[in-house]
Structure formats: structure tokens, C-alpha cells
Amino acid sequence: MDIGKIVGSITSVAKIEELKPLTLYLVHLLDSEFNNTGNYMVAVDTIGVGYGDIILITTGSAAKMTAVTRDVPVDTSIVARIDTEKEES
Amino acid sequence: MDIGKIVGSITSVAKIEELKPLTLYLVHLLDSEFNNTGNYMVAVDTIGVGYGDIILITTGSAAKMTAVTRDVPVDTSIVARIDTEKEES
Amino acid sequence: MDIGKIVGSITSVAKIEELKPLTLYLVHLLDSEFNNTGNYMVAVDTIGVGYGDIILITTGSAAKMTAVTRDVPVDTSIVARIDTEKEES
Amino acid sequence: MDIGKIVGSITSVAKIEELKPLTLYLVHLLDSEFNNTGNYMVAVDTIGVGYGDIILITTGSAAKMTAVTRDVPVDTSIVARIDTEKEES
Amino acid sequence: MDIGKIVGSITSVAKIEELKPLTLYLVHLLDSEFNNTGNYMVAVDTIGVGYGDIILITTGSAAKMTAVTRDVPVDTSIVARIDTEKEES
């Protein structure tokens, strides 16, 4: 799993049905000292997170195995909020 | 999921049967500010998009779980059009 | 999916049974202008391609879902020949 | 599979139910001479490891096939402790 | 699939049960001219290979679909020995 920070959300009217009830966040990927790597992912919220939160992401086939994403065609899900002092980007 | 921009289409006569009804687009991958990264993917359209659209891509096993791609041997599907001011490449 | 060019084949006597009936090609990966990226993959032919062909590759779990590769332990399959003027490497 | 070194743990109160009984370690990825690569993963412990251990990681769909992680939405699991002289980071 | 060269083995006492009967090799990844790339993987032997052999690797969900690795939590398996003049590393 990777560590990321919520920095924005994705708005979309035209999308597949399964995505409509879900919240999609723009996540900056962090290194192991929680510094920005310059890479990002778009990830589904499965636990209720918000802007600035440091979070844990699971990718690949596991991303569609949470209670919220079961069998939804997504490849990146937020599965935990990490308890740590937050950095400002 | 990744953010991309539709920049072309792929034409092919010789292909596996499952791909014949599908539209394959050439997609430039964008960074989190929607600038071109220099990388690309070939992706299946599942929602009806067009040239210049900024779109959301799902990859891996999830790509073959949309209504359009179920059990089709593809690894990249377009699952949403992102509502944002479009950039010209 | 990625775009590649057939540049060679892989010969092997000692291999798992499932690979024996299959043709394995050495494929150079191309960028979106069909220039060589310097990267490669070894891919299974599922449609009948030949040297110099520009082809479409599917990777990951989808690679073992074609009629030719079903349940074969491969991670890269050639699923289409792209209709374009060929480049010489 | 990749080789890593346990350098920290991840603490989290808000997380999906399936993760609650599991220990999540911060793992630095090592090269083939066991030097730090600068990359990391967050991985689930399935065998009982500790700080400084050099370990083997399995990723992707295989990560959720151990006795401890079966059907848990994780993408990286620790599956062995490698017997070698330990490096200090 | 990728091309690699067997350069070492991994010894481990503490590991998950499913790994105990398997041989794990350290594999240097090669480029398409069989030169060392500087990257490596740890891979399961499914055909009987040895030091210095040039081999073909399959990764991801396919790695656990050989007769030897079925349902074992591994992500990289050796599926063929490539017939070629061997390089010395």
C-alpha cells in the first residue's frame, strides 16, 4: 500500500453507473517521510476522509474488495487515515 | 485511477473478436495539474467520449468489469469524463 | 494497453507445458508517435502477427483471457495489429 | 517478489474493518545487494517480523491470499524473513 | 513477460507454509539484448533452472497459475529457460 494526502476532488457528470454514489479524491503520493513525490492517483473514499488527511491507499484488484467498492471498476481505494502530524503541502 | 486526455484513436482490422465492437482511444496521461506527462495508454471507451476530453482511466483487472468490457481482455478503460476547463495540448 | 513492434522471437526447450503451443515474441515498446522507448516485453501471439508489425498489447490478468491464452500463466498478450505505416527500427 | 527492510509501523484509528486485526509496517525497498533504494511500501505482517528484519514482500492479487490476509483489501504482504546478516539503515 | 538471469537464491526459515516446498531465486532483470538493467526480482522456480540460466518470468496474478504455484501467494514465477548463449554477469 502507498501513503498519500487528499488535495482535491474529481467532479464528473458523465460516468459509469457504479461510480455515481462514490467520492473520488485527488491524492498526492508521499514518500516514507510524508513529503510530496510529485505523483498522484485518483482514489475512492471508503472510510470518510477530508482535505489534508494523510491516508493509506490500496491498489489493483484489492481496491474493489472493500464494502463500498465491491465489484466496482476502480483500481485505487482509500482504506485508512494515518494518525500522524499533518504536513502542509 | 489516472487522468488522461483523448488525443487519437487506434484503427485495426486484425484483432481478437472481443475487441471488434469497442472504440480504442489513444490517451495522453496528465499530471495532477492536467499537464501532459509524455506517457500514454490505449484505452477502451465505455461512456461515449471524444477528442480533447479529459477523462478518468481505470487499469488492471478492474478495466474488464464495466458493462461494456465485461470479460474482454483489456487492461485500460475510460470510466468518467472529468468536468473541468479543457486544456489544448 | 500499450503499443509495440515485433522485433524477434523467444526460443525455449525447457518451459511449462501450457507455453509449448504458443509463439512468444520479443516486442519493443513504442511511444505514442511509434518511436522506440528502449523498453520491451515478451508477449504471446493470439492473432497471427509477424516481424515488424505494430501491435497492441494487453497486460496483467487480461492477458490470460484470450481464446488462445485462457488460464495460461502469461502476463502479456498481443490482441491487435495496428493499421499504420510501419516504421523501420 | 521484492526484498525490503522493516523501518516503522503505521498507526491508524479510522480504517476499514478488515484491517483492524492486522499489523502494518513501513518497509524500505532494498536492491539486490540489500541497499536502500529510496522507495517504500506499507505491508501487512503475516509471519511475525520486527524492526530491522530483512523480509520478502509479495504484491498484487497474491497479497490477499495468505492465511492472514484472505480476501482483505491489501496489495502488499510480508511472506518470509530472509536469513542474512542485517544491515543497519 | 520479462527476461532475467539467475544470480542467487533466497534462504529463509520463517516463511508462510505455502512457500516451504518452493525454490526462490534472485533474478537480475535483463534488457532485450540480455544486458543487466540493474533491477531484480525474487522468483519461484517452476521448471528446474540453475545459476547463470537466462529465463522467462511471468508476474502478477499469472505467477500463481503454474502447476507448482497454484494458489500460492507469489507474484513472480520462472516459466521457461531461454535458449541462447549465456552471458557472464
Q: How are the SSEs ordered, and which strands pair?
A:
The structure is a homopentamer of 89-residue chains.
Chain A: E1 2-9, E2 24-30, E3 36-45, E4 54-59, E5 76-81
Parallel strand pairs in A: 3-5
Antiparallel strand pairs in A: 1-2, 1-4, 2-3, 4-5
Rg over CA atoms of chain A = 13 Å
Query: Spatial order of the strands in the main sheet of chain A?
Result: 1-2-3-5-4
CATH class of chain A: Mainly Beta
Q: Give the name of the CATH architecture of chain A.
A: Beta Barrel
- Would you tell me the structural class of the helices and strands of chain A? mainly beta
The largest β sheet of chain A comes out as:
5 strands, mixed, barrel
Number of strands of chain A: 5
Strand fraction of chain A: 35-45%
Descriptive notes:
The structure is a homopentamer of 89-residue chains. Chain A has one domain (2-81): Beta Barrel (OB fold (Dihydrolipoamide Acetyltransferase, E2P)), CATH 2.40.50. In chain A, 0% of the residues lie in helices and 42% in strands. Chain A has a 5-stranded mixed β-barrel with strand order 1-2-3-5-4. By secondary structure, chain A is mainly β.
